Amino acid sequence: MKRLEDVTAVFLDADDTLWENNMFFLQCIEWLSRTGRSMGFTDKAVLTVLDSWEKRHIRLMGYGYASFEESLLATVRQLSLTSRYVVPHHAGLRLRALKWTRFLRNHPMVLMPGVRETLPRIAARYRTIIVTKGNHDDQMSKVHRSGLLPAVEGVEVVHRKNVQEYVDVLAKYGLAPEEVVMVGNSPASDVNPPKRAGMRTVFVPHPKTWHFEVEHIQPGGPETVRIAHFAALAGVLGLDA
Length: 241
What we know:
Elements: E1 9-12, H1 22-38, H2 43-61, H3 65-82, H4 90-106, H5 115-125, E2 127-133, H6 136-146, E3 154-158, H7 163-172, E4 180-184, H8 187-196, E5 200-203, E6 224-226, H9 233-236
Parallel strand pairs: 1-2, 1-4, 2-3, 4-5, 5-6
Helix pairs in contact: 1-4, 2-3, 3-4
């Protein structure tokens, strides 16, 4: 197991790193796909429409449940208006979509395997900070419901995970990038931006990572260690030595 030396602080992604997140959205999208099929659309066509609305609403509203709700409702409306079939129950579809977004806001928290046991061990030795992106109230609701808040030093909810946001979090906690490791499942948010900010990274792949977050990990720069599951982070940080 590769071990990272001279680490004093650990930044942790939240969604799909500490707890399951995207799988619940995928359940909603499966309902949307079934609805689209009943209107004569392929799954690919439905996802193309949803992606288009999501990109638009993320630009306008940022990441979060409100943005996704607007995208979901816009997709249902567009499919209803452009279907070659008569769709007499648009109001009912809208209510179903709203029911799904209520579920997304309140679903049970499912921690990733090993998090409950491993996180306290990490926090006992290293300054441990959750760095997550999205709407502040959305993300803090999940943090509180997860029961993990007492185990960490702080939680930072940023609008986007770009280089400047990481630099700002480092500055807030008085940390140098070379002493911090960022841990997460998203190459686009948790690996490449912190690498460009001078931080080492640990990539924990998730089979259901949101496709907007998938990209190639940039070569060179500070080291990236890939692990199969969260519990393996203990070995990377030398806690199993």
